[in-house]
Description:
This protein is of the alpha/beta class. 35% of the residues lie in helices and 17% in strands. The chain has helices at 28-33, 51-60, 75-78, 84-97, 99-103, 122-135, 152-161, 200-214, 236-248, 258-263, and strands at residues 2-6, 38-41, 68-72, 107-113, 140-143, 163-165, 167-169, 187-192, 219-224, 254-255, 271-272. α2 (51-60) links the parallel β2 and β3. The radius of gyration is 18 Å and the shape is globular.
Amino acid sequence: MIRIGPSGWTHPGLDRAWPLQRGVEFEPLSFLGQFFGAVEVDVTAHVLPRAEHIVRWSAALQDRPRTRLLVRVPSSILDLSRDAGERVSSAEQFRESITPLVRRERLGGLVATLADGALFGPSEARALGDLARVLAPAPLILSAAHRSWYERRALDVLAGAGWSLAHLDGDERWDAPPRRHRATGAVGMLRLTGTQPYSPARIGDAVRRGLEISSEVEDLYIVADNAGHPGAAPASALAAALEVKYVLAGEQPVPGWGRIIEVFPHLEPLLDLGGD
């Protein structure tokens, strides 16, 4: 199965994309669940989530049974400069906090994002192995920007530890990760990044890559993410996710809402506004 969606829903810049007529009870996550099969929780990359936050996110999707959350692993758990025991303790707290998502079958996977300069090596392999043992049996996805993680030895280690290595799109560096690598787990991810809305050609290319990857995994998540890119319009991730859905649907209009068309007029022929 292929699920598509954006990364995050709390950025203030997204206010420009939400419906104008919304009450004080408006819940962005529940709203996104109407249109996307996946939403990535990006705030957990910075802090350990509190139990009440997890319960609220789970409740927001109670009427969206097919939508899954991808939860970013807090960076403190991945920080090798910390004592190993402290990292394991934090990982155990994190595992306990996400229990409501697991119980209600709303968790699509846990996403560990390594720093750009992080290289594959023995200490990194051990740390990820320890983390996998703590977080199992949740689906585990690793996002790594350095090419060393895509070599045969690293792929073997990740597969043995239970990590699915993500595919990255939008990195134009000469030493960027390869466009394709073999699957290391049952869950796949294709992450779309960039500071500008994707061109139709890049959307088409991303869909082709997604279809190729999906043939090797049980579940594939295509996540549009422009967080951390200076000058990026936060809502452009929403636009990219909708465009991917449109192409995957055989270029037939997909459900959308009017305000997003005001921000990105090129989406108008791609969306079915229904009763909006």
